[in-house]
Amino acid sequence: MAGSDTDRTGAINLDPSSLREAFGHFPTGVIAIAAEVDGTRVGLAASTFVPVSLDPPLVSFCVQNSSTTWPRL
Questions:
Q1: Cβ neighbours of residue 60 closer than 8 Å, sequence gap 6 or more
Q2: Mean pLDDT throughout 7-30?
Q3: In which domain, by residue range, is 39 found?
Q4: Which CATH number do you get for residue 58?
Q5: Do the beta carbons of residue 51 and residue 27 sit within 8 Å?
Q6: Cα(52)–Cα(57) distance, integer angstroms
Q7: What's the domain count of the chain?
Q8: What secondary structure letter does DSSP report for 67?
Q9: What is the pTM of this model?
Q10: Which of 30, 58, 71, 73 could lock 52 by a disulfide, CB 3.0 to 4.6 Å apart?
């Protein structure tokens, strides 16, 4: 993503204007939420995804309480 950089911990530093543009490309639908946990890739699909803040970059999403993947993320 243009305007992004990586810090020493490997976390991505996002430029708020680039993040706003990226959020603008998501109208509605299903989104994949994924992470690498202890060397294993885990993920799930969510139908609720809402941008909350540009600085700090935050999003909100809803996951079913019975999800077995959610605790691993």
A1: 48, 49, 50, 52
A2: 73
A3: 4-72
A4: 2.30.110.10
A5: no
A6: 8
A7: 1
A8: -
A9: 0.54
A10: 58
